[in-house]
UniProtKB/TrEMBL annotation:
Transmembrane regions: 33-51
Organism (species): Endozoicomonas euniceicola
Keywords from the UniProt entry: Membrane, Methyltransferase, Transferase, Transmembrane, Transmembrane helix
Name used for this protein in its record: Class I SAM-dependent methyltransferase
InterPro entries cross-referenced by the UniProt entry: SAM-dependent_MTases_sf
Keyword Oxidoreductase on entry: no
């Protein structure tokens, strides 16, 4: 119980620090800051962690505490080292609350398709997109093992709690994307989950996440 309370306090502190860092660092991106504050407002009384927890309880998932977010300061590093440009169309598989998708669209300038199956995340993000009349952001309430991946030039995948079978299914899908499609995955590379050679590892580096440091693997479909 005490341990959970300690983790909750640590997460709250990190959230506040991240909020201040984001506002300061991206202060010149007014459209992004507006969308960021609007979306943050929608989570004022129910954090992304509780939205995810409620959904996971509802579907009777084994681990209901598995939600996590990429801090935007870390996402900036991931985007740079992955080589994401304004001409890219990024598919975020498991977009969560959607702060990352808004950042990719409004700071990096790329087109973004946010795929997320928790309706509580999807309707909030869709609302922000609609109210601010944002173009180049598509939000889908779908399973990323099923959703169409046409036109993706970059995939961002942060899903460290998946079982091996699911990662294998996902890797099979991603291996079928056109050659040169770039995939940034957090915590594990995809190649070990396949028998046939399908991905070229381009880079591996560490970034900060709320629970500590994690490896990011950048790989290209061969
Ligand atoms: C670890 S969170 C990452 C959120 C966000 N991408 C980020 O980096 O901040 C993973 C998200 O994937 C979603 N998710 C898990 N399995 C999914 C599936 N099969 N289809 C769509 N979304 C899924 C979860 O609901 C969760 O919001």
């Amino acid at each position: 119980m005490l341990k959970l309370l300690w983790i909750a306090l640590k997460v709250k502190w990190q959230e506040c620090r991240e909020f201040a860092c984001v506002v300061w660092r991206f202060r010149s991106h007014k459209a992004f800051l507006l969308s960021y504050c609007l979306l943050a407002f929608l989570y004022l009384f129910s954090s992304p962690y509780s939205v995810s927890r409620r959904y996971l309880k509802w579907i009777d998932a084994g681990d209901v505490y598995s939600y996590g977010e990429t801090p935007l300061t870390s996402l900036a590093e991931i985007a740079d080292r992955t080589g994401i440009h304004a001409s890219d169309h990024v598919f975020e598989l498991g977009a969560g609350s959607g702060f990352t998708s808004l950042w990719l669209r409004l700071v990096k300038g790329c087109k973004i398709t946010a795929v997320e199956w928790v309706p509580g995340f999807v309707y909030r993000l869709k609302w922000v997109v609609r109210v601010l009349k944002l173009s180049g952001v598509e939000v889908r309430c779908e399973d990323y093992l099923q959703t169409a991946l046409e036109n993706a030039t970059v995939i961002y995948l942060f899903a460290s709690n998946l079982d091996d079978l699911t990662i294998n299914k996902l890797a099979e899908r991603l291996a079928a994307l056109p050659s040169g499609t770039r995939i940034a995955s957090v915590s594990y590379p995809l190649q070990p989950y396949l028998k046939q050679p399908a991905f070229d590892l381009v880079e591996r580096f560490e970034v900060c996440f709320p629970w500590g440091r994690a490896d990011v693997y950048v790989q290209d479909v061969v």
